[in-house]
Design goal:
Order of helices and strands: EEEEHHHHHHHEEHHHEHEEEHEH
Distance between the termini: 38 Å
Helix content: 40-55%
Length: 392
């Protein structure tokens, strides 16, 4: 028998995508589907990739070998659950007609702008896409897709769960009174920065950097948002991506130059002129200054609200996701477990290869054929005649 000429035909067999390289007996599994969530699927390679990312993240955070094993055992059981969560939320976002295209375009433009400060290739759109592939290990379109899914899930969560959570003022006051010792403050200043580098620049370049720094100070003092100025102009990528924020600092954390320039200044103060450093010009803004002692309720109300909100949010989001599961078409292959399965929901995997044709009676076949004949002899729409041929 001649070898069959369908060398790269993609098939779905028993929940696994396989490729036929030659004859039907020569089959190699390319991908295995482990779950079906409405119109989407989850594959084994997706779960393995999530596990690899989780492992790399824990290693990057400095987890020791024994600690690493324990953390992985605790977290990897939720990998399938988290993927189902994401698919359900993305599907809900599409159902609600939520669009995030404008946010994606803005986010990518911000990333490209920050990248261009340290890598000139990023100015060119095609080279920026190559940079994204190098940094993330995924194609530019896949990167955009991941960003879209993340934004959609956040929007759905805020709209369908977050906005329904309300923290009464009386509860905030009670929490404050019960936890006062947690809100005894140190002498601490909160700052944001814009750094304009002069590294590797000649005298003309240094003069241009100084002028730019002074112009930014003037713009900030006129009311332009300091965070946006920092994001768009600062040469320190670590703080630029956070709008220039460097967080709370005690006196021992700062240089004498920074202390002298900011410590006694009021909230909103911007250093004028910029501070001259060996490697550039530094602009500091005082965001807040906490004096030592017991913090008033008004000072910490936002933190308490956030803490109480998160205590309610986690159970509420799981409740919402459980309901989405209950309403979804969901099948999970044997050997895989959804850690947050909806109670009573049947998610038994159905293998298409094992389905049998529906059986019918002789009378049903006869009636079906008769209905076809009746339809065939009906007048053609728009005419007064009937076709002359009859059904066989």
């Amino acid at each position: 028998m001649e070898r069959m000429q369908f060398s790269k035909m993609l098939l779905l067999v028993g929940g696994a995508a396989v490729v036929s390289l030659a004859a039907p007996a020569d089959l190699r599994v390319l991908e295995e589907i482990v779950a079906k969530v409405n119109g989407d699927i989850i594959t084994r390679s997706e779960l393995e990739k999530s596990r690899a990312n989780m492992l790399a993240d824990l290693q990057q955070r400095g987890a020791k070998p024994l600690q690493l094993d324990q953390l992985m055992k605790e977290r990897e059981k939720d990998i399938l659950r988290d993927r189902i969560d994401q698919l359900l939320l993305v599907q809900k976002g599409k159902e609600l007609s939520i669009t995030v295209d404008a946010e994606i375009s803005k986010n990518l433009a911000d990333i490209q702008q920050q990248c261009a400060k340290t890598d000139p290739r990023c100015v060119d759109p095609d080279k920026f896409q190559a940079f994204v592939r190098e940094q993330t290990g995924m194609s530019y379109e896949d990167y955009k897709s991941e960003m879209r899914n993340s934004m959609l899930t956040q929007r759905v969560v805020r709209q369908e769960v977050g906005r329904l959570i309300n923290i009464p003022r009386a509860e905030v006051e009670k929490y404050y009174n019960d936890h006062k010792t947690e809100y005894v403050r140190k002498d601490q200043i909160f700052l944001s920065e814009i750094f304009i580098s002069t590294q590797g620049k000649d005298d003309a370049g240094k003069a241009a950097a100084e002028k730019k720094a002074k112009d930014l100070v003037a713009r900030a003092k006129k009311g332009e948002k300091f965070g946006e100025l920092a994001r768009d102009n600062s040469d320190n990528p670590e703080t630029a991506r956070n709008g220039g924020e460097i967080g709370g600092q005690e006196k021992g954390d700062l240089s004498k130059l920074s202390i002298d320039a900011t410590w006694e200044q009021a909230k909103g103060y911007v250093t004028d002129p910029p501070l001259k450093l060996d490697g550039g010009f530094l602009i500091l803004r005082v965001d807040e200054h906490h004096k030592p002692g017991q913090a008033d309720l008004e000072e910490v109300q936002g933190m308490i609200n956030e803490r109480l909100y998160m205590e309610r949010f986690q159970p509420k989001i799981r409740e919402y996701l459980t309901q989405l599961r209950a309403d979804a078409f969901l099948e999970i292959k044997e050997g895989f477990v959804d850690a947050s399965a909806a109670p009573g929901k049947n998610t038994t995997w159905t293998d298409p290869a094992q389905l049998r044709p529906e059986t019918v009676t002789k009378d049903e076949v006869t009636n079906k054929a008769r209905r076809k004949r009746l339809l065939w002899v009906m007048p053609i729409p728009g005419t007064k005649t009937q076709p002359k041929s009859t059904s066989k």
